[in-house]
Amino acid sequence: MFYHFCKTILNGGKHITRSPPPIHKLGFLRNPSLSLSLKYDYSSTTTKNQQPFSVSYLINTLGFSQEAAVSASRYVHLETPEKAESVVSFFKNHGFSQTQISKLIRRFPPVLLSDPDKTLFPKIDFLSSKGIPSPDLAKIFSGYPYLFKSSLEKQIIPSFDFYKNLLQSEAKTLEAIKRFPGILQRNIETCVAPNINIFRENGVSESNIITLFQCQPNAFNINPVRFREIVEEVKEMGFNPSRLKFALAVFTLRAVSKSTWKRKVNVYKKWGWSEDEISLAFRRHQWCMMASEDKIMRVMDFYVNNMGMGSSLIIKNPELVNYSLEKRLIPRGLVFQVLLSKGLVKKDFKMHTLFLCPEKTFLQKFVMPHKEEASELSKLYKEKLASSK
């Protein structure tokens, strides 16, 4: 904020404002560049206290907070609403909700300056022509609006064709795009293709490459030098390149930094696991190292302290780490405790099977047979599941 000061002197208890000298006596104003500079500063001072139109528009029309509007206004300058309104109307007409429009513009403010017909429509129309319905298109572009920056002819279409050839299926290509739209922006020649070739050189089958890419389309988005290092690390761990677990292990090490990996190892050690046991668990189920440190800690606490399971049992079944506490473990644990209190299960019951079995099997085996003996089971289980949503 700029402040204007009038110099005053105290004279007999009164403030007297001295008038400035005539402008022709201000010698430094004879320099025209200084004169221009002062004129600019003065005009900016008078407008600083007024909220820019861009900020007002983002707040009043799109529901931005003051902070978000100010931040976005750095990238887009609006003097009138017409151009922005045409963009907003375009998105509304193509099935975007108000929430999705606001999300899109928060992530990529310059989109408000786009020409809907020349910049936005061709990209939406291309993916629509491939069979992606409007609701999915809205999710794709609101979640990854940077696609609007990419050239349709030079980037998006060539990328689509490359992935379609790789996956040998347009349907699988569309599924991968829905999972991570950013693959359409990736540099194929310098990143994706070299990493796929590294896999091939090391004996990874095409079917496993396809499976990995379809499930984790961002898997090959990494510097090829680092990718090759990871492949070698996984081979040293004893993984067989011909097995899918090899590809999954590579993805895990690619997604988890070395420092994060060490922290997760230390969390498992707190529960009595040795380095060898952690390696064994990882070879059995790679995703056990994808869970966050907090998730690992909470899940282990649930199994060991709440359910009385031995830590070694989880080493043998490391997939137990990745189940949701709220949506699977706690509701099933409550059912087991009720059954145990009523003597309907034995104390030496293999508890890990309770959590590992599919939902249908769980209901058929642990809930439905005991309706009369424990009528509250079904209600308890459904209420707990409902509260987790």
From TrEMBL:
<dbReference type="GO" id="GO:0006353">
    <property type="term" value="P:DNA-templated transcription termination"/>
</dbReference>
<dbReference type="InterPro" id="IPR038538">
    <property type="entry name" value="MTERF_sf"/>
</dbReference>
<dbReference type="InterPro" id="IPR003690">
    <property type="entry name" value="MTERF"/>
</dbReference>
<dbReference type="GO" id="GO:0003676">
    <property type="term" value="F:nucleic acid binding"/>
</dbReference>
<comment type="similarity">
    <text>Belongs to the mTERF family.</text>
</comment>
<keyword id="KW-0804">Transcription</keyword>
<protein>
    <submittedName>
        <fullName>Transcription termination factor mterf5</fullName>
    </submittedName>
</protein>
<keyword id="KW-0806">Transcription termination</keyword>
<keyword id="KW-0809">Transit peptide</keyword>
<dbReference type="Pfam" id="PF02536">
    <property type="entry name" value="mTERF"/>
</dbReference>
<keyword id="KW-0805">Transcription regulation</keyword>
